[in-house]
Amino acid sequence: MEEYAIELNNVWYSPDGNHYTLKNIDLKVRRGACLALIGPSGSGKTTLLKIITRLIKPSNGFVIVRGSNGWLEKHRVGYIPQQLGLVRSLTALENVLIGAHSRIGYIGTLFSVFPKKEMKLALEYLDMAGISHKAERKVYTLSGGERQRVAIARALMQDPEIILADEFVSNLDIVTAREIMDMMKRVKGTDMSLIITTHDINLARYYSETTVIIKDGIKIAEISSNVLDHNKVKEVFA
After folding, report:
1. CATH superfamily of this structure's domain 1-66+197-238
2. pLDDT per residue over 49-101, tens digit each?
3. In the predicted model, is pLDDT for residue 224 greater than 70?
4. H or E element in which residue 193 lies
């Protein structure tokens, strides 16, 4: 029996009880797979990620993450929002250590009291992300690509089995974006599942196995990324 990291069944979402921004979404993501979500701005991609990471609850339907539909293990899902969510006044290392919040608690995070093993782990993830040489630099002094690397290291610090990345390379030039995606693919390995939202068809084709196209909150298509139909995508974005 195939194991899925994420399963969505008949998921609907309405912020006000009247207008639905997601409608009857069914989705399955295999363990260790990478899935790309493509759709116009406002199509519901970010809302879908927030439901999976349990920042918001669906109005209807079921979300099963790692075999559980409870809300107790959201720390096993790493979330990289489009604006990254980094604290600009903190160093790269301090931002990554925030990812250890679920293990050390609110007080430890608030007062920057981190066990040595967490410090060591944070430095290892910064090194894995290729940014350890700037661990003590304030985030506001880093370039866009460097901030992306810090955000990835922070997500890894959560010890996730799933990473959700929302348009997180959309503001980068194509060379830097591909460098970041190459690094993400490398650190993901074979066990971690990844969902990315993107407007870049080529990124979806190269870095994901499956692409889901969403428009107006509705799942239009789910296809193998290596046969992604550019004409169909153009119709959706029109």
Report:
1. P-loop containing nucleotide triphosphate hydrolases (3.40.50.300)
2. 999 888 889 999 988 887 666 554 555 788 888 778 888 889 999 999 988 77
3. yes
4. strand 193-198
pLDDT per residue as tens digits for the range 129-162: 888 999 999 999 999 889 988 988 888 888 888 8
The 10 Å Cβ neighbour count of residue 54 is: 17
- Positive or negative, the Cα torsion across 15, 16, 17, 22? negative
Q: Could you report how far apart the first and last alpha carbons of the chain are, in Å? A: 39
Residue 177's nearest CA partner among 185, 189, 169 is 169
CA distance 190 to 103: 24
Would you state the structure tokens that stand for residue 37, as one six-digit string? 């979500």
Residues linked to residue 189 through DSSP beta bridges, in sequence order: none
* CA–CA dist 3, 9 (Å, integer): 16
Cα separation of 144 and 226, whole Å? 29
Q: Which residue has the tokens 């967490």?
A: 118
Distance CA 62, CA 10 (A): 7
Most distant pair of Cα atoms in the chain: their distance: 53
- 26 and 9 Cβ atoms separated by less than 8 Å: yes
